[in-house]
Amino acid sequence: MFYLNRHPDHQKPLAPVDAETLGVAAATEVERFLGFRDNHAETPLRALDALATELGLGAIHLKDEGFRLGLGSFKALGGSYAVIRLVLEEASRRLGRPVDVAELQGPEIRAIAQAMTFACATDGNHGRSVAQGAALVGAKAAIFVHAGVSDARVAAIARFGAEMIRVEGTYDESVAEAARVAAEKGWTTVSDTSWPGYERIPGLVMQGYTAIMREALRGLDQPPTHVFVQAGVGGIAAAVAGHLAIVLGDARPTVVVVEPARAACLFETAKAGHPVKIAHGEPTVMAMLECYEPSLVAWRVLARAADGFMTVDEDDAVAVMNRLARPAGNDPVVVAGESGGVGLAGLIRAAADPAIRTTLGLDAKSRVFVIITEGATDPERYAQLVPARSPAART
Questions:
Q1: Residue 106 maps to which CATH number?
Q2: Which domain holds residue 220?
Q3: Are 35 and 142 in a shared domain?
Q4: Global pTM?
Q5: What are the tens digits of pLDDT across the range 8-67?
Q6: How far is C-alpha 193 from the geometric centre of its chain's CA atoms?
Q7: Catalytic residue (one of 64, 123, 192, 331)
Q8: Greatest distance between any 2 Cα atoms in the chain
Q9: Is 123 an annotated catalytic residue?
């Protein structure tokens, strides 16, 4: 399914609060914070020349977030960044002076962090980021996981010392439970989705993701003409689309948001013109994108900065994992988890459909950018879906 953005706000400037969150100054600050992380390195930017030729495109470049901060996912940029920011803000309040990230490991700051607990719900990757951030600053973490989160993903979070709390039901139900318990116990909720009255912290999480586009734009000879980016609640898609709209203005690329057909809350939201909660149906293999209600902040950005919304099927996601593992020509081998290659799957689907291809202006001059949002963060599942190509998870 494919739908062009017809929202009245399409192509209008971002709301001032979102422009501040996703703008150049904020992205610069994110990169400054990353400079204080021991294991920070820019993730690889790779060209898929053979696939571009096959699809009749000028170029395809992908950013491989499977190498991000030892967590194997772009989510490493969001939750941990928000945790660090919130600790510094609390320290500034208590000490009565500005506290910089350079002081993060000082005894005064550590003592303040030790009294703080950060909570979130997760499909797997966001929880790892929040737990890692809490461990870095000496705080506690309570991570809520729903019934569909695998034991391997739970174990990957627990190794950071987080308290793991199982919740029956879906991701959206775990979000509600995490917020309820956190409010009851005085914990700080660090969610990657937003709801009425709760926007600033999800905004900080999205802000962390701007580092991806900062690095990509530095590494590309020319800005992309098209971006295909996957979405669950919409945080990464909004961060990418919003930052590009601010930095490139009228020269910004065409941005297409790609979701699983079984969990297409943003697609349905775009069609309705307002946030829509969709019914929970059969689970999708794209586990990190199995969300049934969009983030309000993300939708506010995407209504303005996304140009199209589309869905891909289960087979599309698995096929792209295998294509990346066994590439044609001189294209590099790329390890993409179940949700990691969904943006690329959307591109392949769009390029093969004459109507969508024409609508989006995909041709031999197109320079397309996609993000591999996760590596094999669940090695057992990866081995099932990509037989005989089962590397250890990037941890």
A1: 3.40.50.1100
A2: 2-74+206-385
A3: no
A4: 0.95
A5: 999 999 999 999 999 999 999 999 999 999 899 999 999 999 999 999 999 999 999 999
A6: 11
A7: 123
A8: 61
A9: yes
